[in-house]
């Protein structure tokens, strides 16, 4: 089997998309049901890696039925247009608030370039447009037919981004959490928030985590990164980390700190919470996945709205 693929049981295969050449950054998941389904495409620059992994599992160009993304950020959905091109029969499923950006990615790419600058090309590449007639837009709940009575149900979870959904597989009880429960580092068991601007809202984010707990999934499948069996413990930790980051950023905001000083303070005060930061290779990956600057900027943006 291709070395980017890990069998997870229940006809689910994790695909390491090799984002920006790294291992263990972003996972896509292929559900090998009667109607094969890819959850998360990864970036545009990862699309050939993902295509080759799908092909090595025996799913040909005409066989993939559905591509579903939890949200439209480029590390999750940047490859949608390319994957849609490789698999011309696949429907593309996304929350209704993200659908138009897949059809015309111009605004999404422009705002990403403002954040990432020249690093955009190496980290993400350029999202290709997807034909509107191939897109299925989900409301706050919806379902994706996986064939033979199996389905993915979507659950609107907008704390991280207003176009975010979690997805539950009826056959396995797996919950695809996207970024709504943060970033998980399997080597150390660390969980860190993902709170980028402009959509972060603390109560909405905590409500999304509460919803995930109430769904009582058997397993969490993190886009960053991998399967987690300790469902309730990890979701509890996810909520705890959100509160820690918000409390510290609120303190910095209250003291009138600018973003750079706030980031330095929060980074310093949270360092001991994460074993991953003690290993150089993991620390680099952690910072790429859940950059302290992006997290603090997202919380500051929210604080500017709720307590200017």
What does this structure look like?
Helix content is 38%, strand content 22%. It is globular, with a radius of gyration of 18 Å. The model has no long low-confidence stretch (mean pLDDT 95). The chain has eleven helices and 15 strands. The strands form three sheets. A seven-stranded mixed beta sheet has the order 1-2-3-4-5-6-7. Strands 8-9-10-11-14-15 form a six-stranded mixed beta sheet. It has one domain: Metallo-beta-lactamase, Chain A.
Give a quick set of tags describing it.
308 residues; alpha/beta; Metallo-beta-lactamase, Chain A; 7-stranded mixed sheet; 6-stranded mixed sheet; 15 strands; 38% helix; globular
- CATH classification class: Alpha Beta
**Largest beta-sheet details:** 7 strands, mixed
Would you report the number of β strands?
15
The overall average pLDDT, rounded, is: 95
| Percent of sequence in beta strands | 15-25%
End-to-end separation: 54 Å
Residues in helices, as a percent range: 25-40%
Unreliable residue runs:
none
InterPro entries: Metallo-B-lactamas (IPR001279), NDM-1-like (IPR050855), RibonucZ/Hydroxyglut_hydro (IPR036866), ST1585_MBL-fold (IPR037482)
GO molecular function: hydrolase activity
Organism: Nonomuraea soli
Domain Metallo-beta-lactamase: 25-224
Put the structure in a nutshell.
The protein is an alpha/beta fold and 308 residues long.
């Amino acid at each position: 089997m291709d070395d980017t693929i890990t069998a997870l049981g229940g006809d689910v295969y994790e695909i390491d998309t090799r984002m920006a050449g790294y291992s263990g950054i972003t996972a896509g998941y292929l559900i090998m049901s009667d109607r094969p389904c890819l959850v998360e495409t990864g970036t545009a620059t990862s699309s050939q890696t993902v295509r080759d992994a799908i092909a090595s599992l025996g799913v040909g160009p005409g066989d993939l039925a559905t591509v579903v993304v939890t949200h439209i950020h480029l590390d999750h959905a940047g490859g949608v247009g390319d994957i849609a091109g490789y698999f011309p029969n696949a429907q593309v499923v996304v929350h209704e608030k993200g659908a138009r950006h897949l059809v015309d990615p111009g605004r999404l790419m422009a705002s990403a370039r403002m954040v990432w600058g020249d690093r955009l090309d190496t980290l993400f590449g350029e999202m290709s447009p997807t034909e509107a007639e191939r897109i299925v837009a989900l409301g706050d709940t919806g379902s994706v037919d996986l064939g033979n009575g199996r389905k993915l149900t979507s659950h609107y979870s907008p704390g991280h981004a207003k176009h975010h959904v979690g997805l539950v597989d009826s056959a396995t009880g797996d919950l695809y959490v996207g970024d709504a429960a943060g970033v998980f580092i399997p080597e150390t068991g660390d969980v860190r928030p993902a709170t980028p601007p402009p959509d972060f809202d603390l109560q909405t984010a905590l409500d999304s985590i509460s919803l995930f707990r109430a769904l009582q999934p058997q397993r969490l499948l993190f886009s960053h990164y991998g399967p987690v069996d300790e469902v309730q413990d990890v979701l509890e930790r996810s909520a705890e980390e959100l509160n820690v980051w918000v409390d510290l950023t609120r303190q910095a905001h209250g003291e009138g700190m600018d973003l750079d000083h706030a980031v330095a303070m929060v980074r310093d005060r949270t360092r001991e919470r994460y074993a991953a930061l003690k290993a150089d290779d993991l620390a680099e990956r952690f910072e790429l996945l859940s950059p302290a600057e992006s997290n603090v900027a997202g919380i500051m943006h929210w604080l500017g709205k709720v307590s200017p």
